[in-house]
Amino acid sequence: MKITGIKQSRHRLPLDPPFVPSWDTRPRHHFDLDLVRVETDEGLCGFGAGDSMAGFAGHEDLFIGQDPMNLDRHARVIENISFHHGRCWPLDIALWDLAGKILGQPVWRLLGGHSNKVRVYASSGSLRSPDELVELALSVRDAGMEAMKVRFHRPHWREDIAILEKLRTAIGDRLELMVDCNQGWRMPWDTAQPWTLKEATTVARELEKLAVYWMEEPLHRGDYRGMQQLRAQTDIRIAGAEMTRELHEIRHLIEARCLDVIQPDAAVTGGLSGLSRIARMAIDSGLAFTPHTWGHGIGLMANAHLAAGVAGSAFLELPHDPPVWTAERRDFGLTVPIKPNKEGWVELTDNPGLGLELDENLLANTRVN
């Protein structure tokens, strides 16, 4: 079997009402799905999604005519292209989906077969009033999920703490709470400075009082020394690396003991090929591996296969912020949106590849030319 083509397409879903994420100062009036497909001479096709793969066009010849099962070779080429251009790791996801279809096996089993399910936490995305946040938390618990991530990014972190205190008082110990501080990176137009180590340490001590499970991205992504000191000075788990660009940077975060929870995303960095190695390294080092998944359902499912197949992660991120961010919005273009069961787990099937089916009619109607 040979690769005969790699095709990219963009699909756009209008958002009315718009979605206003905590990490972005601009409301989002549409959501784009950047889809990549790998075609073969025997009619099988694998697909992936994530970043737009800027700069990939013109490199298709590096894959056409190649054996699709040579995954290590393909991952090295993708890493080279991603160094010179955009993040092209959705192609790696598509190749793993294709490999599963060729072998008639689900990706989670090809990655090691640790488990066929992973427990999820509800990851909110917007800044809510105290009453709205309590309402969301109670609905999350009623849906069977045992944990929820709360976003910080109000004008001052003391405002965030005050709202979190009201939430903890209202729900007691019925939910594990995580906090995303959103200090690791910024949107291109956001020039705000990240917290200093002293600020992050003060916030961490407040979060300890509220029994927060982990503190995510409390410092700039390159402040390795600061992460080491923060981790040493506090009891709360320190999480990060969701947008870290290079695999060697994540390895350094693990080796230098900068984090307790490693959170890269297969659609953003390393693909399934690279992060399967990173996950094993993290676990062998006594750290938790819990992928970031804030994107389309295809990337979410790829990370679910990774977490279940390799890492046996304690939690997997599930973007969940109704009514502005629902499974139907997040997973548009799939015939069935991804939802947890009544116990708060995403269960993976034995269907080949990622086990997903595209809604070709909807994709045709939402395609951006």
TrEMBL record:
Cofactor(s) needed for function: Mg(2+)
Transmembrane segments: none
An example molecular function term from Gene Ontology annotations: magnesium ion binding
InterPro entries (alphabetical): Enolase-like_C_sf, Enolase-like_N, Enolase_C-like, Mandelate_racemase_C, Mandelate_racemase_N_dom, RHMD-like
Keyword set includes Cytoplasm: no
Any Pfam family the entry gives: MR_MLE_N
An annotated GO BP: carbohydrate catabolic process
UniProt keywords, alphabetically: Magnesium, Metal-binding
Domain Mandelate racemase/muconate lactonizing enzyme C-terminal: 130-237
Gene3D superfamilies: Enolase-like C-terminal domain, Enolase-like, N-terminal domain
Cytoplasm found in the keyword field: no
PANTHER family found in the cross-reference section: ENOLASE SUPERFAMILY, MANDELATE RACEMASE (PTHR13794), MITOCHONDRIAL ENOLASE SUPERFAMILY MEMBER 1 (PTHR13794:SF58)
Record-given protein name: L-alanine-DL-glutamate epimerase-like enolase superfamily enzyme
Organism of derivation: Limibacillus halophilus
